[in-house]
Amino acid sequence: MTIQEYEEKLLQLIDDGIDTATDDELFAGGYLRGHISLAAAECELENKSQLSAMKEKVEQSIADAKSELSPSDYELICAFWKQL
Length: 84
Description:
By secondary structure, this protein is mainly α. It has 4 helices and no strands. The mean pLDDT is about 95.
């Protein structure tokens, strides 16, 4: 699986849950979409093709944004990411 395919799969998983998602899940999914797309773009720019590199970039991006989130929102987003 390529980085692009992985990104598409993750975004599709988020989209597939929209009809049944709670408000918290909608928030977490919307928030993660940006981090996922950014990580995929960075991997492409850096010529990285390992899925593990993209996962690390998403996780680092979330960690870097921790100060922008309330503790409960941060935990919610981390849990949603693990679920994906």
